[in-house]
Automatic annotation (TrEMBL):
The chain crosses the membrane at residues 6-25, 34-51, 63-81, 88-105. The keyword Transmembrane applies. This is Uncharacterized protein. Keywords: Membrane, Transmembrane, Transmembrane helix. It comes from Jeotgalibaca dankookensis. The lineage of its organism: Bacteria, Bacillati, Bacillota, Bacilli, Lactobacillales. It comes from the Bacteria.
Amino acid sequence: MALGVLWILFIALAVIAIILQFLLYKQDGTRQNTIFIGNAILGFILSYMTYTSLPMNVTGQRNVAIGLAVVIVVALLLKFVINRYENASKLLLSLAIVGSFIQLFL
């Protein structure tokens, strides 16, 4: 029973991530910052779930989860502080989300 609920959670997260990634690259300028922040929050949630689901003695994979969260912070800095590298920040954010999903599902 508990694994069924976990599977539903994974499917829901995957669907949300696919929708947010599609909206991130859509060329609509009205809500781009909101969608970007929503993607960043999803990335932080995925990194946190990955970090907390691993045992304490698997430090390498836990450090990868922290590294993916740092990549999200760098993407946020590129988007909102520097303001010149919008496509690079979107790419970094997408790579962090995909990396978190791969690490979480495997």
